[in-house]
Design goal:
It is a single chain. The protein is an alpha/beta fold. 36% of the residues lie in helices and 24% in strands. The protein has twelve helices and 14 strands. Strand 2 and strand 3 form a beta hairpin. The two termini are 15 Å apart. The model has no long low-confidence stretch (mean pLDDT 94).
């Protein structure tokens, strides 16, 4: 069994390459039960969340067990980690042989999650963002934010990247790291003003009070919502939902777990039939993405175990060669 570090994950993957790997994976499909959520109460701080995300290659559809894989990601989300300078999200990914169940690789789950989450957003943007989208606004300065900036830049001609965060120093650190890699990145202090200028808004926060306000968005904006992963978390307001054509990574996950979808469904602002498509339907050409330059599109990601499996297999194969 291989033990694969974060640095080795970085070496094995590219943003453009993983976007295409995910495109093929959503097209072909996999068995992915809805992930398990467990709340771990803590007497001295915010509760943590334990997530279990299994998936396996659809061997029946393939007609053979050759090359099949089983994978499971074990993740903890501990909001209080930010106060001690540690990432909120920790995890490991275990990849198994699909035929025998033998462990093949133990992969840094935090890094794998960052890569696959950002590239799933970029995959959605490849269908939903304007072809000429050049101004990116990243809301939030956590560990995922530079990955989102790089992934979106791999599928659209991004010329300027703006970073907003409640703590400006954190935003500046992300911007400085991106500048060191050649990206035109800077920070902004007025989020509301920047919402009206961006072509793509990519938000990765755990807020329960919406930051993305529909009334401030310009025509043609693509909204990428990544952060909220429980029904109580929400990054966009009702106006954004009303104005946008709404897409999700998976219908089963988003309509059960994502506050940006669950809350508007409960209030009637959004109806199930007005969710235009998920990534399976887009990748298979069954539903259309952006249809005009002026429309606002909104993509809500909660994460899919298929994404981890596809990324884990890609890393494993790269390390084996």
């Amino acid at each position: 069994m291989l033990t694969i570090s974060a640095a080795e994950v970085d070496h094995a993957l590219s943003f453009a390459g993983l976007v295409e790997t995910l495109r093929m994976s959503f097209r072909d499909g996999a068995v992915q039960p809805v992930r398990h959520h467990h709340t771990i109460e803590r007497p001295d701080g915010a509760a943590s969340t334990l997530l279990l995300m299994p998936a396996w290659t659809d061997l029946n559809a393939a007609g053979t067990s050759a090359g099949g894989h089983v994978g499971v990601k074990i993740v903890t989300v501990s909001p209080d980690n930010n106060a001690i300078g540690k990432p909120a999200v920790m995890g490991l990914y275990l990849l198994l042989n699909g035929a025998t169940g033998e462990p093949e690789a133990l992969i840094d789950g935090q890094r794998l999650t960052q890569w696959r989450t950002a590239c799933a957003s970029a995959l959605a943007a490849s269908y939903l963002a304007r072809d000429d989208a050049s101004r990116l606004l990243v809301v939030g300065a956590g560990a995922l934010s530079p990955f989102l900036a790089k992934a979106h830049s791999a599928v659209r001609p991004i010329k300027t990247i703006r970073i907003w965060n409640r703590t400006p120093a954190n935003a500046e650190k992300v911007a400085a790291d991106l500048r060191a890699e050649g990206f035109a990145a800077s920070t902004v202090s007025d989020l509301d003003a920047e919402l009206g200028r961006a072509d793509i808004v990519s938000s990765a926060t755990i807020t329960t009070t919406p930051l993305i306000k529909g009334a401030l968005l310009q025509p043609g904006t693509h909204i990428d919502l990544v952060g909220g992963f429980t029904p109580t978390m929400r990054e966009s307001d009702d106006d954004a939902i009303r104005l946008a054509r709404v897409y999700v990574d998976t219908r089963a996950g988003a309509t059960k777990e994502a506050g940006d979808i669950v809350q508007p469904l409960a209030s009637g602002v959004l109806k199930p039939e007005t969710i235009v498509a998920d990534l399976h339907e887009l990748a298979r050409g069954q539903k259309k993405g952006r249809e005009s330059a002026g429309e606002i599109t909104l993509f809500k990601s909660v994460g899919a175990a298929l994404e981890d499996l596809a990324a884990g297999i890609a890393v494993y194969k790269a390390m084996k060669t």
